[in-house]
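Exercise 7. Predict the joint structure of the components listed below.
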Amino acid sequence: MQLQSLALAPAPAPVVGFDAESDEELKIVGAIKTYGRDEEVFAEGDRADFVYRVVSGAVRMTRVLADGRRQVADFYLPGDVFGVELGAERTATAEAVGEVMLVVARRAVLASDPAQAQKLWRQALGELGRCRDHLLTVTHRSATERVARFLLDLGVRLGGEAQIDLPMSRQDIADYLGLTIETVSRTMTQLQADGLVRLSGCRQVTFARPAALAGLCE
Amino acid sequence: MQLQSLALAPAPAPVVGFDAESDEELKIVGAIKTYGRDEEVFAEGDRADFVYRVVSGAVRMTRVLADGRRQVADFYLPGDVFGVELGAERTATAEAVGEVMLVVARRAVLASDPAQAQKLWRQALGELGRCRDHLLTVTHRSATERVARFLLDLGVRLGGEAQIDLPMSRQDIADYLGLTIETVSRTMTQLQADGLVRLSGCRQVTFARPAALAGLCE
DNA sequence: CGGACTTTTGAGCCACGTCAAGAGAAGTGG
DNA sequence: CCACTTCTCTTGACGTGGCTCAAAAGTCCG
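Solution:
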């Protein structure tokens, strides 16, 4: 079964920016860089001179609270653009989840081209939409709903196959969903016990009954 | 005491958009419109042709889940601009919290002026930042922390006086903070019992010990 | 004053967090 | 290839913060 058909998000509204224009991707041409596991791409407070596109691997955007608790604001997967900021400074830290390959481009170069600038703008607004969806998920849903949603979303974003390799640890998932690592682990175990997914090693997830899994998300 | 000095958010980073430019506000010139309590300004799915600036009163942006639960994504107060969207359609509903006066402008008019368009862009990215902050607050903080933060933030945004009139109901606050109305109410009662705030009627809040209140937020 | 709505308060329960220990998995060096 | 360390994940037992259900008390307006 194609997972795509179970996508949680409604079909994207026709994008018309300011003047309705080609929907083609933001072109990022620049150097290829690679990062090792947990290596920082940039840190909160750095100058925000570059934007990035993920070629392979995954990147997490994190912020740390004063008391040490960590919030993973977002994961970026192959094809995703990240690093577009309002101000001159980074407001969050980006780290490689595993081995990552990125394309890097100067923000100024993109901004000088009006067409590209508009795509940057769309990118940012798209991110706002995702952030709001996530907010809704995290504030009003149970642990089971959150994990189910997360797995399905990841499945779609990674290509819609029935089996995915989680790039991130349980701790990353927990910090993203606003849960503890124990709750994430228990929930995954429960989903497997209910026959909704199969786990082969803790990083490989097979969607056994994707429709039922989607049903958990309302 | 000036509440401003206790602002939770770090001082806004120097804004340099694409080309560092004047930091003046987005100019919205257009018709003044007024809305009554709970009246819809626009609804999810509407065409997104206009942008708005709040003159007086307050507006809430809401989304409703399939099961009827409601998420208040944001409140807009006097001076705030809202209604900037990525797509052609509204992704959330905006309603007047009480009596509201708004300035309305066609989005197309703003967008045709590059300088204004850039301010629209900044506006959107600013909102993204707020959304992320809120996400962090809601996922990792206790009910007390959330309410304290909410009250202080509102205090600053409403002008930094030591006393504020809440424009919104307990239910609105609960839906914003991802809590129940009972928990919000109990928390406010507790804050009063602890001498951190004084409540005169349920809408009027006086910051009795703002520093202590800020202390609850880390 | 009366009715509708909002807020407060109370009692009980449950989902999730905390603390703790064990089981894999993965890397390291001999 | 195996011992050893280290890290991650799972599982269990228990406590608690916030949700649910229910009712009383305020508040607003006609």
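Discussion. The CA atoms of residues 196 and 210 of chain B lie 7 Å apart.
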